[in-house]
Write a structure and sequence with these properties.
The structure holds two protein chains of two kinds. Helix content of chain A is 13%, strand content 47%. In chain A, a hairpin with a 2-residue loop joins strand 25 and strand 26. Chain B is mainly alpha-helical. Helices cover 36% and strands 6% of the residues of chain B. The longest helix of chain B is centred in the N-terminal third of the chain and has 24 residues. Chain B starts with a helix and ends in a 15-residue tail after the last strand. The relative contact order of chain B is 0.08. Classes of the chains: A mainly beta, B mainly alpha. Strand 36 of chain A pairs antiparallel with strand 2 of chain B.
Chain lengths: 680, 67
């Protein structure tokens, strides 16, 4: 078939659609069996930055494909590409590519109401009948153009409302486009980085050929004919022309490492060199010299805004700084400072954007000197971030979290490169739930919600990753939201042992208070009887034996009794002497009843020799300071001796020791938690 | 850590053992007088071996009269 506009031969497989863009003259063609009709002109699409391109072959989750078409959509924060595929089994499908994230999708038969686009908010559940999806993003895509063969006609500038939703598990993804012909739904999965493979030969050939031809950016390392002098990304110092084969340089002025393999541009305003750390997905970058914000979404850089240097945050790292974390090499590509204003007070935190060729993007949050490493979640939790009180329990992937904070913040500083167009004063809503050291965070705008799983990093870990001294990092103030309370394994094990000891002690306390070999003697004396010396009936005691003498004035009320008691052996010798007093007062004062003292007393003693013993008793009783002014027979006192008893006091000491140990473990921990949850 | 834990467990068991021994043997409680005092000369037992005792063993007493 020939292009009716330029006459060039064009290839198309009618099984995969009736729309084709002429690769030579960019005419948009509607195909039928015999001829092609021109339906318009298509703008030349910006070259792809990622691994996919027209004609590319590869596999997604092991399923082979070939790319036969592409549509590029733009929206407020940037753009994304939809790649039209033919799979090895003859089916067709799509791969969506947005900010270095890939989804593979196939059409599904679902016709949602267009009103959904208006009524749903990011985070809301989608009424899709065969799955549990929540809305991740909605917006209106503007078609920037298409290329190759497509299953439907596209028109540059055409506006298409869309919904993107993610599943709760298995990286599920659902997108809906509300086109003029009706809604189109696509179901698929978000791909992990190792699930998309593009044949390298076609990638290299296509990609670098077009880059070299257009010449708007250059990859110093890739170009054989290296003839340009390099300037340091950090200080701008002239490093001369790198040696052939060199992959990096060390700046002789500031010591920074300059990676020659990265893509570089020059500032549109001041021509300062700017390194792009993730050129494939960067959509904006800011000149480190003059703070011109540039749009990188097209083939050619364009000035977006001129930012000021006012209120520059003090950051502990350099943009472009490389570090090793968990066996991967990362770079700091950019940063955003958010500011939350609460009751007139500004609170700031900084999110550093990290890039790693093998892992993609991650964020390193810094707030009050506390660091949190966070990565975006492909599966969104079943949590409504706009609902729930503080400390409310939420669960995700088998982990329990507590809602920590919700609020709104605005962007007050941007620097470096970012995979979307972030502007000052952009506002977001945020939500944090914690299970130290882990956290679950959401950030949302009117159109989009993103979830992140975070992990608190202590200073030692950060210092090791960046190969810097701990003291060079910002001092941590207070307790970080997801900062774990660090207890050594020994402390944790020890407190368990001490808890067990406490239980054992309590059991022993109960046992000791009821243990004993029984009563040796028990008798009661009235006041008249004990006011003069009284000798009890003989009773038997073993030896050696721990006994107790108990005195109980059951009827004692607002009075006291004092006793001198002697234990007398069968040779009429006093072996033990005791002096004891019991008193009990009670009343009602101001409508409240009160009492003080005790009606009984107990004294332990040890008998060395077994034998027959008696008690010699003499006592006094009275009210207040008046002794012996007791109505005769008004009450009696019971004296008893119990044999083979067990003392409780040593078990109480044991329990107190265990309690002190447990308190030493828990009090600092509870204090730490109180600081964490303090409103300040 | 293992050594410290073993030490702690040994300490806990030992302390518990000492507490049991001290509690059953009555460590720290009154022992018999070293020189028992006879009350025989001044005693006057009743017919059943108990009852009023004409003794001066106790010379007064009580919190306000002093012993």
């Amino acid at each position: 078939m020939q292009c009716p506009s330029c006459g060039s031969g064009i290839e198309a497989d009618e099984r995969y659609g009736h729309f084709r863009v002429c690769p030579y003259c960019q005419s948009a063609l509607l195909l039928d069996k015999e001829a092609a009709k021109i339906s318009g002109k298509m703008a030349v699409l910006a070259k792809p930055k990622g691994p996919l391109h027209l004609g590319a072959t590869g596999n997604a989750k092991g399923r082979g494909f070939q790319v036969i078409g592409r549509v590029r959509y733009g929206y407020q924060q940037g753009f994304w590409d939809e790649w039209y595929l033919v799979f090895e089994d003859g089916d067709s499908g799509w791969i969506g590519e947005d900010e270095d994230e890939f989804t593979v999708e196939v059409p599904v038969d679902w016709q949602p109401s267009p009103e959904l686009h208006e009524s749903l908010k990011p985070g809301d559940a989608l009424p899709y009948p065969d799955g549990d999806f929540s809305l991740k993003e909605k917006g209106v895509a503007i078609c920037e153009g298409g290329e190759g063969q497509l299953p439907f006609a596209v028109e540059t500038g055409e506006k298409t409302p869309f919904l993107d939703a993610v599943g709760r598990d298995e990286n599920q993804f659902l997108s809906v486009e509300f086109g003029e012909e009706g809604p189109r739904a696509f179901l698929g999965q978000q791909l992990e980085r190792d699930e998309l493979h593009v044949d390298t030969a076609s990638w290299t050939e296509n990609r670098f050929r077009t880059e070299a031809a257009e010449g708007t950016r250059h990859r110093v390392f890739q170009e054989a004919d290296r003839s340009e002098a390099i300037s340091c990304d950090c200080c701008g110092g002239n490093l001369g022309i790198p040696d052939p084969g060199a992959t990096e340089l060390t700046c002789e002025y500031c010591g920074s490492e300059v990676d020659l393999g990265l893509e570089r541009i020059t500032c549109k305003t001041c021509t300062h060199p700017i390194t792009l750390h993730q050129a494939e997905t960067a959509e904006t970058t800011i000149c480190p010299n003059c703070r011109t914000q540039m749009d990188l979404s097209g083939d050619r850089t364009a000035v977006l805004a001129q930012l000021t240097d006012k209120d520059r945050p003090n950051i502990p790292f350099k943009l472009g700084q490389r570090f090793k974390f968990e066996n991967n090499e990362w770079r700091i590509a950019g940063l955003i400072r958010y500011t939350q204003t609460d009751e007139g007070v500004d609170y700031h935190w900084i999110d550093f954007l990290m890039v790693c060729p093998e892992r993609g993007y991650a964020w390193l949050g810094l707030e009050n000197g506390h660091f949190v490493w966070a990565a975006e979640m492909k599966n969104h939790p079943r949590i409504n971030p706009r609902m729930g009180k503080r400390k409310a329990a939420v669960e995700h992937a088998g982990m329990k979290f507590k809602m920590f904070e919700r609020g709104s913040a605005r962007v007050t500083w941007v620097d470096g490169e970012l995979p979307w167009i972030a502007q000052l004063e952009d506002s977001i809503g945020f939500y944090d739930a914690i299970n130290p050291p882990f956290s679950l965070s959401a950030e949302w705008t009117e159109d989009e919600i993103e979830w992140f799983q975070g992990r608190y990093l202590d200073h030692a870990t950060v210092a090791k990753a960046f190969d810097v001294a701990e003291k060079s990092l910002p001092k941590a103030y207070g307790v970080g939201a997801s900062q774990p309370y660090i207890n050594g394994d020994f402390s944790k094990a020890a407190v368990k042992i001490m808890s067990l000891l406490l239980v054992v002690s309590l059991v022993l306390i109960i046992w000791s208070s009821i243990a004993g070999g029984g009563s040796a003697t028990e008798f009661s004396l009235s006041h008249d009887q004990f006011s003069k010396p009284w000798l009890s009936q003989p009773f038997e005691l073993g030896g050696p034996e721990l006994c107790t003498l108990k005195i109980e004035g059951a009827g004692l009320k607002d009075a006291w009794s004092y006793f001198d008691i002697a234990l007398v052996n069968d040779a009429d010798e006093v072996t033990h002497e005791f002096s004891t007093q019991i008193s009990y007062y009670s009343g009602v004062e101001g409508g409240e009843s009160w009492s003080e003292g005790s009606r009984s007393d107990s004294t332990p003693f040890v008998v060395e020799k077994a034998g027959t013993y008696r008690l010699l008793v003499q006592g006094q009783a009275g009210h207040g300071e008046n002794a012996d002014i007791i109505r005769p027979g008004s009450y009696s006192t019971t004296f008893s001796v119990k044999k083979r008893v067990v003392l409780t006091r040593y078990f109480i000491i044991l329990a107190v020791l265990a309690l002190i140990w447990i308190a030493c473990y828990w009090i600092p921990k509870l204090s730490f938690e109180a600081k964490r949850w303090s409103d300040e | 850590m293992k050594k410290k834990l073993i030490g702690l467990i040994a300490g806990v068991i030992g302390t518990t053992g000492v507490a049991v021994k001290a509690s059953s043997e009555g460590w720290g409680v009154d022992r018999p007088l070293k020189e028992p005092v006879s009350i025989r000369e001044e005693s006057m037992k009743g017919p059943m071996g108990s009852g009023r005792l004409a003794t001066r063993y106790f010379i007064g007493g009580g919190p306000r009269r002093g012993k």
